[in-house]
Amino acid sequence: METIVILTGAGISAESGLGTFRDKDGLWTRYDLNEVATPDGFARNPALVHEFYNARRANARTAKPNAAHEALARLQRAWPGKVWIVTQNVDDLHERAGSTGVLHLHGVLEGALCARCGQRWSAPARMHPADPCPACGEAQTRPDIVWFGEYPYHMAEIWPLLRAADLFVAIGSSGTVYPAAAFAQDAGRAGAHCLELNAEASATAPDFDEIRLGPATQIVPAWVDEILARRG
Ligand code: NAD
Ligand code: APR
């Protein structure tokens, strides 16, 4: 049984009602990412940044996993320990669909972090700049989200997975943000077959051996059914 590494982006959650970033009505067409998704933006106006993530957290909590999230959870159950999900998404729809061991490159909306002492805890529905850290008591709490210019989480676990992968699949990512945008190249160089599942070809389409276009809720379940049938 082969090792499958799956990268997901905002596109897998689009049909659950969570917007993407760079599609026609994407988040970055409505917000200035420098104001709400950079350390400088947070230093300048923490209340604005908390408000942005409070709204995103509320959206994510009302959203439901879709057929694409559920299909990946089914694949993991069929091949325990062989299917790894690395996501750029900060929602918890993979986990709520039943997936386990999900590696969140960019952090999680359900996490709070103390910028002073590094303490982590579960985020309340709404966070405010004056919230005291439960460990050091300082009012330096931030969403546990990786901002532009910050280094993504879990890379020490991800590089070996990409080298060991027999199959690398990217789902619903525009291929515009590094290091995730280089994962297909990394896995391909190590011998993986690379498959892209997306509504339209991404910026990294040339890095893939195979591309299937369509809505994730249709093409992801179809792909999972196909490989489960093929490999018994
Ligand atoms: P973000 O804007 O904070 O981006 C963080 C990541 O972008 C970092 O890993 C960084 O390395 C990378 N990055 C991208 N361009 C970069 C550049 N030019 N230079 C350096 N680093 C760069 O995104 P986020 O925090 O993941 O999401 C922002 C908000 O949008 C969140 O609240 C999230 O809930 C919401 N959102 C979520 C989803 C979802 O989870 N499915 C979808 C759309 C929007
Ligand atoms: N089915 C499949 N793919 C879809 C669907 C859908 N229903 N809807 C949109 N897509 C695809 C788009 O074609 C695009 O390739 O999802 C991708 C969305 O791209 P982005 O909005 O750039 O989202 P993503 O690739 O996840 O962004 C990467 O950038 O701002 C940072 O940290 C943020 O994690 C985010 C990172």
UniProtKB/TrEMBL annotation:
GO terms for molecular function: histone deacetylase activity, NAD-dependent; NAD+ binding; protein-malonyllysine demalonylase activity; protein-succinyllysine desuccinylase activity; zinc ion binding. HAMAP family: Sirtuin_ClassIII (MF_01121). It is found in: Cytoplasm. The keyword Methyltransferase does not apply. The active site is at H106 (proton acceptor). Substrate binds at Y53, R56. Keywords: Cytoplasm, Metal-binding, NAD, Transferase, Zinc. It catalyses: N(6)-succinyl-L-lysyl-[protein] + NAD(+) + H2O = 2''-O-succinyl-ADP-D-ribose + nicotinamide + L-lysyl-[protein]; N(6)-acetyl-L-lysyl-[protein] + NAD(+) + H2O = 2''-O-acetyl-ADP-D-ribose + nicotinamide + L-lysyl-[protein]. 2 residues (Tyr-53 and Arg-56) present in a large hydrophobic pocket are probably involved in substrate specificity. They are important for desuccinylation activity, but dispensable for deacetylation activity. Belongs to the sirtuin family. Class III subfamily. GO terms for cellular component: cytoplasm. It comes from the Bacteria. Transmembrane segments: none annotated. Its EC number is 2.3.1.286. Pfam families: SIR2. NAD-dependent lysine deacetylase and desuccinylase that specifically removes acetyl and succinyl groups on target proteins. Modulates the activities of several proteins which are inactive in their acylated form. NAD(+) binds at residues 9-28, 88-91, 172-174, 198-200, 216. Its cofactor is Zn(2+). Binds 1 zinc ion per subunit. Zn(2+) binds at C114, C117, C133, C136. PROSITE patterns: SIRTUIN. This is NAD-dependent protein deacylase.
